[in-house]
Amino acid sequence: MTRTTEQPTFIAPSDVAHDESGRQRTYEVRTFGCQMNVHDSERLAGAMEAAGYIKFERAAASALELDPDAVDVAEEHPDVVVLNTCAVRENADNRLYGTLGHLASVKRGQEGMQIAVGGCLAQKDKEVILKKAPWVDVVFGTHNMGALPGLLERARHNEEAEIEILESLETFPSTLPTKRDSTYSGWVSISVGCNNTCTFCIVPALRGKEMDRRPGDVLREVEALVADGAIEVTLLGQNVNTYGVEFGDREAFGKLLRAAGAIDGIERIRFTSPHPAAFTDDVIAAMAETPAVMPQLHMPLQSGSDRILKAMRRSYRSEKFLGILERVRAAIPDAAISTDIIVGFPGETEDDFEETLRVVREARFATAFTFQYSKRPGTPAAEMDDQIPKEVVQERFERLVALQNQICLEENQAQIGREVEVLVANGEGRKDAARHRMSGRARDSRLVHFDVPEGSEIPRPGDLVTVTVTDAASFHLVADSVDGSPLKVRRTIAGDAWDRAEAESCGVPTVGGAGTGVGGSARAGATNLGLPSLRAATTPIYDVNDGER
Q: What element of type H or E holds 309?
């Protein structure tokens, strides 16, 4: 069992969280990469607020509330910008240094501004970041996120850059304070690091060997989220289904799913990402037999070619992969399965690529995150012969995307006429206002846009609605009322939490709702970790706007 601490991490108030005039300094966290990074960014935001900083986008409103005459408080830019980086693909480097180039000119025009770079790319590049961007004030890695406020303070006092990179994890990120963006959904990290040696992946070198949290600590965090109003959690790990490797229980992940599903008040449990080589039937049984575990599975394929899978050091082959999908669908007929696929791995021939297309046709993925192979220094694949020309990779990539988009459309069209339960979201539909719709995720994680007929109760983010699918596109479903009947709305503790958060932001006293006590306090008997109020949005597994799919 790991000796990494699980005790709540205390973040001391920082002397430099206020400027010389007494104004609270503002911060902004920008996230690049996967869901693990989103989770980590919530912890970084929590640490900044615990130290006394205030989130940039709400700084002006809060200051005006305290002093109506304070007309000059709204800065054009935050006082501190924190970049939480990814190192999985080459464009991650380009995005970071492009962003830093832009921030250099911003910093020149805003006295006292600080820039911090953390995450996987910081863990990899270390001093290189300061050589390429000497205007950066702080560089920190994946193993010491809680050090950020102290590093910012030292950099400001010493008037020189601070760099601190630890080679091993000392405290789980989950022990840090958290600032989430959603009242209804949250991430729970069950492990960090990875024991696999995939030849294309830099993550194990940056996140370290797998370390598992104690089951009781994980379950207490889920209970705390529910006590705070969340009804959906996503369990996170580089390989979630190898959970238990440290304490010698090969069935620990299935047991954890069952135990989390038994927590009073939890309605939806998801997890990402599993590894096909370690995906066992006891996990499938736990998914099928635990009502709170959603009929959704993200199962990374990477390639359909057995030859390429071997070169990738992926310890499964296409037949085993398809067998997993077959058993999942036998146990959970409505399961929506998504995947990751890499196109253009070194040595990939046209025959290899055709094998990938074959598996995609057989698998019928609900959605796929498709990537052009990105050469990462420090990985074995970067040194392999037969690197594929860019134009060949692009052509294959376009063929794969066209095939998968067609499958997505056909699978979504098969949902027309079905009744689905939707967890109402905040901000999932970019055109909702223009089209007079609301949006959310079905149990299988499909995005659903639905209308609210005149006279219907207006659901809150976190409430559940039952709608009938009337139309479909490749990446979403539509549920418009056919006869104008009122929307079927089930109010939830998550919706009540949304009401409380909205009231608090306006300074309005709150009252109890479903699942709350007097004044909106948490339900009696729920476990509280003593952490700040928790909030997080449900987002795609990868940044869908980064041009890589």
A: helix 306-311
